[in-house]
Structures are given as structure tokens and as C-alpha cells.
């Protein structure tokens, strides 16, 4: 068997496998990937409260000129310098009150259902 013929047969087998996988894939349930962004604007979290579902991810984006963090319940971010983000995926329902340790008057909440 020549090399080009062998490559064609392997390509045909791979293609057939890919077609089979593509045929099966639509029958699988779609993964739920939802996300919400909270802006850290000067001395406030916006929006607050945020309502999400178990499995959803919230991303905090520091749009201010100051350093901030996000702490409360299972959420424990590092210091977020201007322009930095922090994401957390919620695995349990409940209400999480959180605060910026650097500016304690900055308080907000996430409601997870």
C-alpha cells in the first residue's frame, strides 16, 4: 500500500468517526454556562443585589482607580488592582453578603437559587 493511499484511508476513518460524533452530540444535554459581571465602581458594587442560580459564575471587575477585594461567605478574592477581575462559581443556594475589606462601607449581596 502506498503512503498516500494509507493516509487517505486513515483520513476516511477519522472523518467517519467525526461524523458519528457530530450525529450523537446534539442528543446530549447542553451545559448551562451563565455569568454575571459586577462592576466595582469607586466605592460601590454595581449591581447589588445580584441574583444567580447554582452553577452560575459571578465576575467582579474593578473599574475604579483604587484597590478593592470581595469577601463574604465562600467568596474570598485577592486584592483587585484597577482593571483586575475575580470570578467565583456558586455551588450552593443561599444569600451571600459580601464586603470590600479595604472599604468596609462597600457592602453588597448575591442571592443564589
Topology overview:
Blueprint: H1 3-24, E1 35-41, E2 44-46, E3 50-52, E4 57-62, E5 71-72, E6 75-76, E7 85-89, E8 94-100, E9 103-112
Explain what you see.
- This protein is an alpha/beta fold.
- It has 2 domains: 1-30; 35-112, Cupredoxins -  blue copper proteins (Immunoglobulin-like, Sandwich), CATH 2.60.40.420.
- It has 1 helix and 9 strands; from the N terminus they run αβββββββββ.
- It has a 4-stranded mixed sheet with strand order 2-1-4-7, with no helix packed on it. Strands 3-9-8 form a 3-stranded mixed sheet, with no helix packed on it. Strands 5-6 form a two-stranded antiparallel sheet.
- The protein is globular.
What is the CATH architecture term of the largest domain?
Sandwich
Oligomer: single chain
- Please indicate the percent range of residues in DSSP E strands (runs of 2 or more): 35-45%
Derived from helix and strand composition plus strand pairing, the structural class reads: alpha/beta
Rg is 23 Å
At the fourth level of CATH, the homologous superfamily of the largest domain is: Cupredoxins -  blue copper proteins
- The CATH class assignment of the largest domain is Mainly Beta
Q: Mean pLDDT, as a whole number?
A: 81
Rough shape? globular
Amino acid at each position: 500500500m502506498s503512503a498516500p493511499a494509507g493516509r487517505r484511508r486513515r483520513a476516511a476513518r477519522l472523518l467517519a468517526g467525526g461524523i458519528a460524533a457530530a450525529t450523537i452530540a446534539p442528543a446530549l444535554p447542553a451545559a448551562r454556562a451563565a455569568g454575571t459581571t459586577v462592576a466595582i465602581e469607586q466605592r460601590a458594587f454595581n449591581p447589588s443585589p445580584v441574583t444567580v442560580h447554582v452553577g452560575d459564575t459571578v465576575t467582579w471587575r474593578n473599574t475604579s482607580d483604587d484597590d478593592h477585594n470581595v469577601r463574604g461567605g465562600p467568596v474570598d478574592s485577592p486584592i483587585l488592582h484597577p482593571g483586575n477581575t475575580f470570578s467565583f462559581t456558586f455551588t450552593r443556594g443561599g444569600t451571600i453578603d459580601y464586603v470590600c475589606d479595604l472599604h468596609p462601607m462597600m457592602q453588597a449581596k448575591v442571592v443564589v437559587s
